[in-house]
Amino acid sequence: MHIGERIKKLRKERRMTQEDLAKILKVAPTAVSAWESGRNKPLMDKLSLMSTCFDIPL
């Protein structure tokens, strides 16, 4: 499972939209979409915020 699939799985488990996650991370919803589709990868600062948001280890 690549990082985008993991982000999508965790987001959906918490019943969040891409827009919800984008607001928390202060990025555009298109950035979340690009991560989930594998077109791009999030930077380390965003991964750190996601680990806190999803309550998982980095």
Topology overview:
Elements (H helix, E strand, L loop, with lengths): L2 H11 L4 H8 L3 H9 L6 H11 L4
Helix pairs in contact: 1-3, 2-3
Key features?
mainly alpha; 58 residues
Structure notes:
With 58 residues, this protein is mainly alpha-helical. The chain contains four helices and no strands. The radius of gyration is 10 Å and the shape is globular. The two termini are 16 Å apart. The mean pLDDT is 96.
Cα-based radius of gyration, to the nearest Å: 10 Å
Give the overall shape. globular
Order of helices and strands: HHHH
**Quick one: biggest sheet?**
none
Count of separate DSSP helical elements: 4
Regions with pLDDT < 50 over 5+ consecutive residues? none
Helix content: 55-70%
Note the gap between the termini: 16 Å
Report the count of strand segments.
Answer: 0
**Arithmetic mean of pLDDT:** 96
Secondary-structure content class: mainly alpha
* Estimated share of beta-strand residues: under 5%
